[in-house]
Amino acid sequence: MFRVMVCLLGLGLVSACGSDAEESNRRGRLSLRAGKVLTDGPECGVDLPACPEKTSCIAFTLDGATRAQCLDEATLCTDLLECTGGTTCAVLASYPGQVICSGKCQGDDCDDSVSSSP
Q1: Parallel/antiparallel/unpaired status of strands 97-102 and 65-71
Q2: SS3 content of the chain, % helix, strand, coil (to 5)
């Protein structure tokens, strides 16, 4: 019942409910680009020391493990990380910054978002 109400209220797009909505809730997975290795940059966070110059505190999930590490935000999505399923790597402006895969994920390399669970 709650799902139906949310779908009806969501901009009046009743057709967005059901399997199409569930399909659009799938997210791409972050992975390292071929031949790249994640360096052991310092861990970071609210109660930890500031990141070295030219790096930012970035949170990300790789292989199911979430971590926050000092990394070069300028080259993070272009040189180090990529997303699966046709999605795009993006860094959200927050503290710590958060790397996500943006866009509609298609294919087998997608994860279901938490909001699509019953």
Answers
A1: unpaired
A2: 25, 30, 45
How many Å apart are CA 51 and CA 66, to the nearest integer?
18
List pLDDT tens digits, range 38-78.
Answer: 887 899 999 999 999 999 999 999 988 999 999 999 999 99
From 64, 63, 70, 62, select the one nearest 97 (Cα to Cα). Answer: 70
Q: Rounding to the nearest 10 degrees, give the CA dihedral for residues 81, 82, 84, 85.
A: 160
Query: pTM (2 decimals)?
Result: 0.71
Q: If you search the block for the tokens 């990300």, which residue do you land on?
A: 60
Give pairs for 59-62: CB < 8 Å, separation 24+: 59/96, 59/97, 59/98, 59/99, 60/30, 60/98, 60/99, 61/30, 62/30, 62/31, 62/32, 62/38
